[in-house]
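Researcher: Let's do a round of design. I'm pasting the C-alpha cells now; please hold your answer until I've finished.
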C-alpha cells in the first residue's frame, strides 16, 4: 500500500513546480487532515463542491486549534482586512459585493480595452528599447497596477513600497506558524491601512468619475459602509487588482517559453488568445488555494470534517486533476476545449469579481507580447516569490 503523502510546501522543488506534489496528494490522500490542524482538498470535484457549498470565510467560526491561534496572533488591529468582502459571509458579503460589482460589469470592463492596450504597448516599447529586461518589472507588475489605480482614481502612490507591503500582507492567506512572519503581516496591514486611509481622504477632497468616489458616495449617502469597510474594500481592490494579474502574466509567459510549440501556435493564431488565457490560468494558477470554514459537520469522500474546521481547497491541484482533465492534465494546450472550466477564479458566492478584468489584461499583455516579439526568450533563471497561495514568478529576465 502506498504511504499517504503529506502536504509539504517546503519540499525540494515545490516553489518552482508544485504540481508533482499535488499529484501525490490526489493519489494518496485527497481529503487530508493535516498535522498543522487544517484540512486539504486536492481533487477537482471536491474543490468545486466545497466552493459552491456556501460555507463560511469568517475566522470567528473557527474551532479552537492551531489555525484559530494564528488568526488571534495577528492581533486586534485587523479590522481593515476582515471587513473586506473576501472575509465576510452573507448578508455583509452580499451587500459589499453588490456595491463593487456595479463597476465590474462586462460593458464597463470592455470599455477599458483601449486604455489597457495603450498601457501594454507603452510597456512593450520600453522592452523593445531596453535590451534584456525583467518582464515582471516592465510589464507584469506595472500594467495591472496602473489599471486598478486608474479605475480607483487614486493619486500617485509609492509603487515600490506598496509592492513590498502587499507582498507581505498576502501571506495572511496562508497557514503561517512563524511568529516573525505573523508580526510582519500585522505591521504591513497597519501600514497599508494608513496608506489607504490617506488615499480615501485625498479622494474625498478630489472627487471624480471613478470607483473610489462611488464607494465614498455610497458610504456617505446610503450609510452602507463603515470606515473600516470602506478602507477594506479599497485595500482589497488594490491587492487583488494587481497581485493576481502579475502572476497570470508572468507565469503565463514562463509557461509559453517552456513550451515553444505553444508559443508559436499563439503567435501564428492570435485568435486563440482568449482561450490561451484560460489555459494559462489553468496550467499555472495565479491563486493556488482558497479556504472555507465549516459551520456544521461535513462529509467528503467518507471523511468526516467537524464544524469549525479550516479547509484549504487547492485550486492549483484541481486544475491539474487528471480525473477531470484527462491524461494531458499536466500539458499546456492552448486549444483545450474545456480550459474555461478551470477553478483559478474560484466558484460559488466568492467567485472572483475581477475575473473579466484579469482576462482582458492577460489577453492583451500576453497576446501582444508574443505577436511583437516572435523570438522572445529567457535571458537568465526565473525566480519564484516563495508564496504558497499567490505563487508566481518574481523575476523573469527576457530578451526580444
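Researcher: That's everything. Go ahead.
Model: Designed sequence:
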Amino acid at each position: 500500500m502506498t504511504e499517504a503523502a503529506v502536504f509539504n510546501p517546503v519540499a525540494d522543488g515545490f516553489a518552482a513546480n508544485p504540481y508533482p506534489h499535488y499529484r501525490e496528494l490526489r493519489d494518496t490522500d485527497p481529503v487530508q487532515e493535516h498535522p498543522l490542524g487544517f484540512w486539504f482538498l486536492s481533487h477537482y470535484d471536491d474543490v468545486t463542491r466545497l466552493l459552491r457549498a456556501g460555507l463560511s470565510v469568517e475566522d470567528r467560526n473557527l474551532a479552537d486549534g492551531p489555525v484559530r491561534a494564528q488568526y488571534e496572533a495577528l492581533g486586534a488591529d485587523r479590522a481593515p482586512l476582515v471587513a473586506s468582502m473576501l472575509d465576510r459571509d452573507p448578508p455583509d458579503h452580499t451587500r459589499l459585493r453588490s456595491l463593487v460589482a456595479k463597476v465590474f460589469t462586462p460593458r464597463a470592463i470592455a470599455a477599458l480595452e483601449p486604455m489597457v492596450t495603450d498601457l501594454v504597448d507603452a510597456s512593450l516599447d520600453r522592452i523593445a528599447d531596453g535590451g534584456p529586461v525583467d518582464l515582471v518589472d516592465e510589464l507584469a507588475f506595472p500594467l495591472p497596477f496602473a489599471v486598478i489605480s486608474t479605475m480607483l482614481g487614486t493619486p500617485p502612490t509609492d509603487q515600490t513600497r506598496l509592492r513590498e507591503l502587499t507582498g507581505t500582507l498576502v501571506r495572511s492567506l496562508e497557514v503561517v506558524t512563524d511568529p516573525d512572519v505573523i508580526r510582519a503581516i500585522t505591521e504591513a496591514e497597519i501600514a497599508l491601512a494608513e496608506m489607504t486611509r490617506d488615499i480615501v481622504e485625498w479622494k474625498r477632497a478630489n472627487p471624480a468619475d471613478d470607483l473610489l468616489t462611488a464607494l465614498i458616495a455610497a458610504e456617505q449617502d446610503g450609510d452602507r459602509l463603515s470606515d473600516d469597510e470602506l478602507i477594506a474594500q479599497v485595500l482589497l481592490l488594490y491587492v487583488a487588482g494587481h497581485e493576481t494579474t502579475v502572476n497570470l502574466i508572468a507565469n503565463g509567459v514562463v509557461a509559453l517559453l517552456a513550451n515553444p510549440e505553444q508559443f508559436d501556435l499563439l503567435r501564428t493564431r492570435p485568435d486563440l488568445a482568449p482561450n490561451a488565457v484560460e489555459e494559462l490560468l489553468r496550467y499555472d494558477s495565479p491563486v493556488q488555494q482558497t479556504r472555507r470554514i465549516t459551520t456544521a459537520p461535513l462529509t467528503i469522500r467518507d471523511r468526516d470534517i467537524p464544524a469549525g474546521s479550516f479547509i484549504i481547497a487547492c485550486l492549483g491541484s484541481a486544475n491539474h486533476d487528471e480525473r477531470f482533465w484527462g491524461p494531458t492534465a499536466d500539458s499546456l494546450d492552448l486549444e483545450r476545449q474545456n480550459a474555461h472550466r478551470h477553478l483559478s477564479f474560484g466558484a460559488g458566492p466568492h467567485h472572483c469579481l475581477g475575473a473579466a478584468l484579469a482576462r482582458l489584461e492577460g489577453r492583451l499583455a500576453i497576446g501582444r507580447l508574443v505577436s511583437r516579439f516572435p523570438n522572445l526568450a529567457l535571458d537568465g533563471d526565473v525566480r519564484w516569490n516563495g508564496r504558497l497561495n499567490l505563487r508566481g514568478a518574481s523575476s523573469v529576465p527576457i530578451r526580444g
